[in-house]
């Protein structure tokens, strides 16, 4: 069994067989049920969330504080009846980045990574918007989970199935179609954001040009992309999802450090056993005293109990209580942001599909 770096065995609680959706329901129940559910969610997701927090701050104790605050915020939102709307781990990572954004506005900014601080200062208080997030949020929760855990996190089929309450077969045969569904959603979002009436005519050409097998290029499409940022972004996103889906998703669904987050876990092949603990293992020379780990775990356990009592107290009136900015769910408006992606050279042009009205001329053969 993999041991997390906080001294706990992930998934060893009484709810270890429950899906994340079921644990979310249990968080709104009485204290005796909510506390083990919260502990189970933390055991499952704390290590990768801490790894992401360490990308936001070079200080280990500050990273632990940032990760703990993300769990607290997520738990409070759940107790108030606010649905995550995203896979639990993805939501926690977004909350971590969002909290870092609030830190950037006061004296805590000194503890943040210099690169992140520059991004936050440039993007404004709300931080940068992940370019694929709007399209991702439009998908059903099952599709989101298959993409996040199966592709970004590279969890095993069995583990992904357990987190989502699915069967192994659901994961094995559903992950690739889920990724294709996201690609179509990204394309629709980009075309819908454009004011150019010609853009919808190029949607099919973009899909044809990025097919993994026998792609069909179009000179009309490339001429259009020379003046259209929306179709260019759509082409780049779909090309990245085809060529390097894991990195493209991490960069497209996280506001900061997506590549660093997935690079911390060196690419095991499908079905290979991998250690989650290795993802956020501190660099050589960082404190690893076992007593510190035990003390941190004990202190966090004590801190979680009053939080659970708070959650239960809030549960009764939750959905209609005013929610402050610290408890607002992560929702973002559609924003046109161009992702940086390595796009393979366009294949030789071939005739464009004919259309009935005002369609681009086919490529001469």
From TrEMBL:
The protein's name in its UniProt record: Ricin-type beta-trefoil lectin domain protein
Entry keywords, A to Z: Membrane, Transmembrane, Transmembrane helix
Segments crossing the lipid bilayer: 293-313
Protein's organism: Streptomyces muensis
Region of interest (Disordered), residue spans: 264-288, 340-365
Compositionally biased tracts (Low complexity): 353-365
């Amino acid at each position: 069994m993999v041991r997390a770096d906080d001294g706990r065995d992930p998934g060893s609680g009484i709810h270890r067989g429950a899906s994340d959706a079921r644990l979310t329901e249990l968080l709104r129940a009485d204290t005796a049920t909510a506390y083990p559910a919260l502990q189970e969610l933390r055991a499952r997701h704390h290590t990768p969330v801490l790894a992401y927090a360490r990308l936001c701050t070079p200080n280990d104790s500050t990273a632990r504080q940032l990760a703990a605050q993300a769990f607290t915020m997520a738990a409070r939102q759940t107790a108030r009846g606010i649905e995550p709307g995203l896979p639990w781990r993805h939501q926690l990572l977004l909350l971590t980045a969002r909290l870092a954004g609030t830190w950037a506005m006061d004296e805590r900014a000194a503890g943040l990574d210099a690169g992140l601080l520059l991004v936050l200062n440039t993007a404004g208080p709300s931080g940068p918007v992940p370019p694929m997030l709007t399209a991702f949020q439009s998908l059903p929760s099952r599709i989101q989970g298959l993409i996040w855990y199966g592709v970004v996190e590279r969890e095993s089929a069995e583990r992904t199935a357990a987190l989502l309450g699915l069967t192994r077969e659901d994961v094995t045969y559903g992950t690739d179609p889920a990724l294709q569904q996201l690609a179509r959603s990204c394309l629709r979002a980009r075309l819908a954001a454009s004011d150019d009436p010609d853009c919808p005519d190029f949607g099919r050409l973009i899909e044809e040009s990025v097919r993994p097998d026998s792609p069909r290029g179009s000179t009309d499409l490339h001429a259009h992309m020379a003046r259209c940022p929306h179709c260019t972004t759509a082409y780049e996103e779909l090309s990245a999802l085809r060529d390097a889906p894991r990195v493209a998703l991490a960069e497209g669904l996280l506001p900061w450090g997506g590549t660093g987050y997935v690079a911390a876990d060196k690419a095991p092949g499908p079905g290979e056993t991998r250690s989650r603990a290795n993802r956020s293992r501190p660099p050589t020379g960082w404190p690893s005293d076992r007593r510190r780990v035990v003390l941190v775990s004990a202190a966090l356990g004590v801190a979680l109990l009053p939080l659970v009592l708070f959650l239960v107290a809030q549960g009764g009136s939750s959905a209609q209580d005013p929610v402050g900015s610290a408890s607002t769910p992560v929702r973002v408006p559609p924003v046109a942001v161009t992702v940086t992606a390595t796009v393979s050279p366009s294949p030789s042009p071939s005739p464009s599909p004919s259309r009935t009205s005002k369609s681009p001329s086919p490529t001469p053969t």
